[in-house]
Amino acid sequence: MKNIPCPACTDATPETVSSPDRRKALKSTSALLLCSGLGLARQVLADDAANSHPKVGDQLARADSEGRPAAMHSAEILPNARPVPAFPLDPASGAMRDGSRLNKVILIRVAPQDLHPDVQPYAAGGVLAYSSVCTHQGCEISEWVPKDQTLMCYCHFSKFSPGRAGEVMAGPAPRTLPLLPLKEVDGVLVVAGPFTARPGVAKSA
């Protein structure tokens, strides 16, 4: 007598196992799960990048840009013009490190004759990146005063000399503006090192 498989003892009939629709559904589900996992991983990487400090090799992107951030070229920074606000850009994830305003910098081009020799190693094609946070009370520095070649904070009118390593020239600011070292790679502005000092207002002793 032949052994006849019991339909109740198997999970699926041959017709179900070989169903093209089921195979297609399984493939679609697997692809969806894979994409969801990759999307979550990319989001985690982007969040980590946004909240971390500037890294060597980061590019710079305009802080006021719309849409997808793009790496800036040194040629975009014009001489004797209002400074350009920017954030470091993680080239791996494409995310700006804008999770903290302490990462924000202002880009300014300084004429060679106005650039102190000690500052030259921090410049990329004459372009310097200074912290945009005033060292007095943390207001944002956004103005350029052509008359005396200084960066100015409008809150209490502190002035800083970009050509002299962010030295305080006027006002109540207690210390120089931190510099973010730059270099050029194929004309693109790239971070070459950490801030020369902690950005923002110095903590009380």
UniProtKB/TrEMBL annotation:
Enumerate the residue ranges of region (Disordered): 1-22
Domain Rieske span(s) in chain numbering:
125-191
**One function term, GO molecular function aspect:** 2 iron, 2 sulfur cluster binding
Q: Which GO terms describe its cellular component?
A: membrane
Q: Which PROSITE patterns match?
A: RIESKE
Check the record and name the InterPro entries matching this protein.
Rieske_2Fe-2S, Rieske_2Fe-2S_sf, Rieske_Fe-S_prot, Rieske_Fe-S_prot_C
**Per UniProt, what is one Pfam family of this protein?**
Rieske
What cofactor(s) does the depicted protein rely on? Answer: [2Fe-2S] cluster
Keywords tagged on the record: 2Fe-2S, Disulfide bond, Iron, Iron-sulfur, Metal-binding
The protein here is known as Rieske (2Fe-2S) protein
